[in-house]
Fold each of these.
Amino acid sequence: MKPQYFVAILFATSLYWMYLLYAPFLLSITIAALLAISTSNIQDFFENKTGSKFSAALISSILLGVLFFVPLGYFLATLTIKLNTLDQISVKNLESFILNFMNTPPPYLEFLQPYIQETISDIDVKGITSKTISFAGSIGAFSASFLKNAFLVIVFYFFAQYNGETIVEYLKRVVQVSVEEANTLTKELSSVMSVVFYSIIINAMFQGVLFGVAISFFGYDGILFGIMYGFASLIPVVGGTLMWFPFMMYEFYLGNNFNAFFIALYSIIMISIIADTFIKPIIIKEINNRLLKEDDTKLNELVIFFAIIAGLATFGFWGMILGPAITAFFLTILKIFEARTADCAT
């Protein structure tokens, strides 16, 4: 047996065992690596200010935890407490009200009845009470699991920021591509992920603030429900509806018809139509133009927009990071393949 074959077998075997060893952490490692790529400019800024790669990685990790995971942790913890202190009688009364409202809406809303029936045809309204109680019991376990994964992402993010440059340079030497192609792949993936990361954060914060400020005028917790709306806005098509529709129904239940109408119209017109449909692509385009100065590294903002939606639909919450990364990687590989084809033709 030739030595290179023996080494290849050893490499394949070790790769298989490495996969088995780190399989439970692969998603966290992937997300951490992509987040590190997205925020490499922040790492460079802190490194220039502190003169220490370790300090810069530590500050970047703390900042990520504060800006991204702390609000979500607050949301999950508060939601857990509120769900476990629900009054079951009030929930049953609300369930009965929703059923009556759907079957016999007020005269001024009768024209909406077909749309309401179609929208919630797949929802088991009669099971709201039991499902709410069941969800209240499981949300605590989900919160603990998510916070554990978030902690792992931050830990891996720190190591990615601290050792990322060394790892990238090593991969450039190992992978059988030219230095120019490796630099192209690294630069374009980093550029797109930076645009995606900042776009997601700004859009979620923007829509969350719009909803939180409005809902606080009716006596609700603006911070909690603003955070909830920010994360719900990441869900394609129905994200915002999951937030404002329950508030509208609850206000109708309390007899506050004006409040119910205001919440619905404000959420649909101001947030769903103006903010999400028109302002969101503008924000992505503005970030794209500000971060990426070279035309050859820019990715169309609509491609980024649909990549985020596709990622969320396919992979869930973390798909907002994975979707654009996969798209950018694929398009960059196509560009490299095109360049190689052109070289062969000449």
Note: The mean pLDDT is 76.
Amino acid sequence: MKKQLLLKVGLCAVCVTSILFACTKSNQTAEKAATADPISADVLKSISDLGFSTTDVHKQGDNYLVEDDILLTPANFAEASTSPNLRIAETEQYRTTNVVKSLPRTVTVSVSNLPTVYATAAANAVARYNALNLTLKFQIVSSGGNIQIIGFNEGPSGGYITLGSSGFPTSAGNPYSQIQMNTNAQAYGSNPNLGYVTSVIQHEMGHCIGFRHTDYMNRAFSCGGTATNEGASNVGAVLIPGTPSTADSGSWMLACSNGSDRTFNANDKIALNYLY
């Protein structure tokens, strides 16, 4: 997930197989990041085949950052979708090809080496999911959770700052195992707001259990900038029946945060109940 930085950087007061999503915030006046190394035509084709934009692709180690906030791993390029339900360019709720299986099920969540506000936010996010009485439950444990929340410290880059990142369920039906939360002061400020941090963890947990961004077909809806359609895809965007055919400004899975405590709206609950 990401959020727009409205002030210049330094003056700021205050989205097995895995695809990592980073919540970030945009800074219209921040300096652009340095130009990334050239990406080979074969890699760009693989990214396009997965249904992601090939504009501004950046290499990070063995992985590739696409669409500002999605990290594709080599394993992603090796797995294709077999789903017949793929739909593109509609403003509705979408899930990934892989979802959590073996329901009913309780997924444990742990927080390691992070300030107290992150642990409290994780507990609050878990409580929000459990209040929906889904067949998929969550439970906070002291360590070694099925989903482990850890920290990293990274400042703004290319007009955005990462708030958090996570990934998709494995092909075996297990939730993605890690959420990374940014402890840099320009992400949440020197005194992070509990509700705001809760909403980002809640969003990243959504990715871990198989949800894509609600506005993946046009990230400009929540992020601003140029409207972008990902085009034809063969993986990871399966329409969830019963969700709206118009833009949904309140969804917990929008690509960019508006800085508020955003939780489930009525359409989000429909999507969650449909899957779990």
Note: The chain has one domain: 2-275.
Amino acid sequence: MTGKLIFFDIDGTLLDHDKQLPESTIDAVHQLKQKGHQVAIATGRAPFMFKEIRERLGIDSYVSYNGQYVEWENKTIYRNPIDTDLLEKLTDYADQHGHPLVYMDLETMKSSAEFHVHIQESIATLKAPHPAYDPDYFRGRDIFQGLVFCTIGEEPLYRERFPNLDFIRWHQFSMDVLPLGGSKAKGIEVALNKLGIAKEDIYAFGDYLNDIEMLQYAGTSVAMGNAPDIVKRAATHVTKDVSEDGILHGLRMVGLL
């Protein structure tokens, strides 16, 4: 590979605070490709939740579900679903505490509750509707990520009870549920090993807690100006806010544009 490989998070990185793609970001991604660089996405979202973004930016490689499902040039190269027995136990435990769950596979997402305000408020920030009710959706299919809906401060309930799962907060009412050790960095590592690319040749842009491992792993990493301080400390560079042409500024900062 003659050019570099750049991974972009979506929410708060590619997408601005209104969930829009800034024109400067669209232009910057196209410029990268014209210069011979390869561009990929690394996100906590499900593939069905960012198809339009991939099409608009002309991207066919991505790390999704925080590293649990990876496609490269439209071919699946990594799958790491959550153990069904663990999901069964998690479902029972969450139900005891009045916390609903959402189960996510490659096609859609379903909820363990017919309706819950925490689900509605969290999912709405992704511009998605409340998932349909199907409490048995995790049975007989690969679930790559779950969402447990609980308030800030209730994380220890789950982290202590389920040491073989990782819980990463992404909203004040919700945490991602992943297999232990699952992360964007792990998904990227798998891709690099299969493709024979050195991590010194990759760049990563992100803005939130689920980006920390990725930013620490990449040869060069850029935290968005809108990122919390803990995320900024994990990166080698900090750019402007996403709404202030942060992607374009960051790419210029590291010499890619």
Note: DSSP finds nine helices and 14 strands in the chain.
Amino acid sequence: MGEKMSEIINIENVTKKYGDFIAVDKLNLNIKKGSFIGLLGPNGAGKTTLISILIGLLKPSDGKVFIMGQEMSRNNVFLKKQIGIVPQHINLDKDLTVKENLILAAKLFRIKGKEREIQIEKLLDYMDLKKVENRISRNLSGGMKRKLMIAKALIHDPEILFLDEPTVGVDLNARRKIWDTLKVMKNMGKTIILTTHYIEEAEHLCEKIALMDKGRIFYNDTSENLKSSLGKYTVEYFDEHKITKYKYFKNIEDAKIFSSSIEENFILREVSLEDVFYNFTNRKVT
């Protein structure tokens, strides 16, 4: 019972079909309150479709989503107030300033007067946007735009934050700053669900990683457990057709014995999360 109480999101047998195409396929996942989950998968895996279902934007063809014990639907106003959303595509009013974008977001959630002023000032400081508060948002750098989108999503102090590719198109420095912000939010007790193409991002931020392909989550565990399920060492080498191959080993001795038989160049290294992802997405998912 205690375990169930700690879960903030329950996805029960959710399927989403578009004609004959199955975007999400009989998916089950439970997410604990205060956890940071990374949803990792190739293009077309169903990540964005799943997020759209979780935030009530799409109705599943079958199955149900429960958040905080209530069924999510397009009309559930209470749940929508508990959720902050950072979409994949820029959702700023490009003709408004940074501060005006936040004022508009606050008005949509009916945050008024002094409370609105305090919250906006807090977010401008928190997201390091104070120095550009009067800049028209079309003139912001990619990193600043992404930070403003996160600030918008936090305007109503939501319990749950959904981020769909939040650092796509930003430089390394901006990405690292966004990572720091997300880590602080996790420490504040927020539940965060992140989709990303950047495997390093998921490994750095997320306590659990769900690997998704062809509409299914086929592995859901910590980064360390995912890696150890494959092995401890990777030998990366060319085969006779000059195609890169990977072989995984539980111990260094076996990896060295195998390596000694390779005539081409090879690399012997520790298993990475990228190895896990490559290995599983190149298998037939059943």
Note: The longest strand covers residues 7-18.
